[in-house]
Amino acid sequence: MSIHSWARAVLKVDLQNAKDQGFDPVPALRALLAEVVQMNKALRDPEELAHELQFLADNLDDERDYAFMRP
Questions:
Q1: What is the pTM of this model?
Q2: Distance from the first to the final alpha carbon of the chain
Q3: Contact 16, 32 (CB under 8 A)
């Protein structure tokens, strides 16, 4: 199991637990994201973390066409 597969499985269980407690998935995911960022801030350089978050934000569109991907 890769680290990403593990994280996906953990998140799936956590979202089910949130649903079982009456929480909607969007606010639950927002709360989880906020906590992940806070924990990362304690372990990583803020600039590095900001760069990674910006990269993820810039690449949210799965349909985006990148020049380097064109034939």
A1: 0.79
A2: 33
A3: no
CA pair distance 21, 60, nearest whole angstrom: 29
Tokens of 48: 């590095």
Q: Could you list the pLDDT tens digit for every one of the 71 residues in the chain?
A: 899 999 999 999 999 999 999 999 999 999 999 999 999 999 999 999 999 999 999 989 887 765 555 55
Q: How far apart are CA 35 and CA 10, in angstroms?
A: 15
What angle is formed at CA 8 by the lines to CA 52 and CA 65, rounded to 5 degrees? Answer: 50
Return d(Cα 47, Cα 17) in angstroms, integer.
Answer: 33
Place of tokens 């349909």: 63
